[in-house]
Amino acid sequence: MKINEIANKAFTELMIQKIEAISADWKKPWVTNSFSGIPQNINGGTYNGINSLALYLLCEKEKYPLPVFMTWKQANDLGFRINKGAKAFPVVFWNKLVIHKETDKKIDYNDYIALSDEDKKNYKVIPYMKPFNVFNVEQTNIKEQAPELYNKLMNKFYLNGSKLKDEKGLLSYPVIDTMIKDNLWFVPILPKEQDRAYYSSSEEKIVVPLKRQFKDGESFYATLFHEMAHSTGHKSRLDRLKPAIFGSYDYGREELVAELSAAIVSSSLGISSTIREENAAYLKSWLQTIKEKPDFLFSVLGDVNKASQMILDKTSSIEAMIGKEKDVVSIIEANLKENIGEVVIKVNEQNENDINLSVYDNSMIYLGDIFGMKTGEKSWKFSTDTSIVIMVPQNKLDFFNKRLHGSIISDEKLELRELLGKKRLSVLGTVKVKIDKIQVMTDKDNKPLIRCNINGNPQMSEKIPTKLYEEYLSGKRDLKSIAAEVFKNEIDLLNNRDNQIKR
Fold first, then answer.
1. Rounded to whole angstroms, how far apart are CA atoms 375 and 391?
2. Cα–Cα distance list, 67 to 33, 40, 98, 268 (Å)
3. Burial of 372 (0-12, 13-18, 19+ CB in 10 A)
4. Calpha distance 300→296 (Å, rounded)
5. How far is CA 153 from CA 66, 81, 482, in A?
6. At CA 333, angle to CA 327 and CA 338, rounded to 5?
7. Residue 446 CB partners (closer than 8 Å, separation 6+)
8. Sign of CA dihedral 493, 498, 499, 503
9. Which of 300, 316, 325, 381 has its CA 20 to 30 A from that of 2?
10. 3-state DSSP assignment of residue 143
11. Which residues pair with 274 in a beta bridge?
12. CB–CB of 346/360 below 8 Å?
């Protein structure tokens, strides 16, 4: 039997066991692990979709306290030993092979993404499945061999029980509450005192009962995630939703996608998620279909992967913004998102009564300056200098000329005519570059590699020096500082370029 078939069989068996258990008690949570967070490998790379759900269920079944896994080779290279008799679990990764149509030269997929649309036509992209057998950290001697690393992982994932409560004593999740209050999801989320929770694709809105109408806060959030998962299927997003009659095959399939997506999101955020009462009737039909058609499960989980990741990505971006100081810079940042997209805002001068910001696009092309003068306790009046703007698309120039000039910021809100940002910006202050999307992986010889984006531009994978990698594993260095050192030459080039920009 091929390993992808073995993986399919292993995933299917776990799902059948779970649905059978829930069938006996449909109020039973999908996942009952004590940790929070997304399953990851020993190098910090997270598993998603099919793998994520399967590993959640595996941890529950085997009572693993940590969702951290490694291959036999990873364990061996790091000096760890797999316990005698330990049974591996198969995970699969979809990868993309990029080959030049004429020369047959292969390039990295991230390098392909960075190409122009015209250059991309010269390449063919071939998706393929790459399987791996993994072991949980509990199946190794890591606890004895590297107790500091093990304790670090425990601190990262373990729930201490000190969850936030609202004034009614119900679970409060600030990130999601902020998403609702500030209308940061793709569609409005409208909590109302009524008995239904639903997503309307025609009206593009989500309606849910008030939190106090649920038996607990966990049920409120799990229900919300279910409806958010449905909304990801809109044609403007994942284009998954089909016209379906209640009780039909397509209707039931979409409900399963939403249920499992809510389960993954809830587990990732440390929230218990039970099956919706109205979907309890679908359990037997889901179970029967999975038993008869194992490929059905892989098809569903492909959609689950995309839906849950969309929710988690949005949640992460909002979480990064929460707690940020509500100064004038961050407010301007929030209001420039829609109109300028990825930009760099540099603080040239800021004191109690005035502010001077320079705005660049992500390639460091100067767009213009924003000047502000304090007019009250929480009020600022702004103007811009567009006389020396170079290489600015018309829509951006119009924004500076027509929308920002003379605007007033008051009570921490910038009045910029219906501007609701959907993209994150970088407020760097005096920092020259933005390093993000950092990934650690291994080459064919299992040597550690690192790649990242610098000011939005993907970098090719580079080897991590042994000393730096050991410092990362021991917790002495974080990934951002390692990336800054590995890609020092690229950063220095950007700094030099920045100093040479002429206005």
1. 33
2. 9, 6, 32, 11
3. buried
4. 6
5. 8, 18, 19
6. 150
7. 73, 74, 77
8. positive
9. 300
10. helix
11. 29
12. yes
From residue 244, give the alpha-carbon distance in Å to each of 185, 240, 252, 285, 392.
Answer: 25, 12, 9, 17, 46
Q: How many angstroms separate the Cα of 297 from the Cα of each of 10, 16, 262, 305, 472? A: 12, 10, 16, 12, 37
Domain coordinates of the chain in residue numbers?
Answer: 31-157, 174-321, 328-427, 435-499
* HSE of 432, CA atoms in CB hemisphere, 13 A: 14
3-class secondary structure, 462: strand
pLDDT digits (tens, 9 = 90+) for 175-197: 899 899 878 899 999 999 998 99
- The pLDDT tens digits for 81-128 are 999 999 999 988 777 788 999 998 988 877 787 788 788 889 988 877
Map tokens 């811009």 to a residue: 384
Q: The tokens of 154 are what?
A: 């425990």
- Across 70-79, 160-169, 392-401, 450-459, least confident range: 392-401
Output the six-digit token pair for 495: 């700094």
Residue with tokens 């009462």: 277
Which residue, 89, 78, 95, is CA-closest to 145? 78
User: Of the given ranges (19-23, 313-317, 364-368, 401-405), which has the lowest mean pLDDT?
Assistant: 401-405
H-helix or E-strand spanning residue 381: strand 379-385
- Determine the pLDDT at residue 497: 47
Amino acid, single-letter form, for residue 268: S
Give the β-pairing of 462-463 and 457-458.
unpaired
Secondary structure (DSSP) of 218-263: HHHHHHHHHHHHHHHTSTTTT-------TTSHHHHHHHHHHHHHHH
**299/403 Cα distance (integer angstroms):** 46
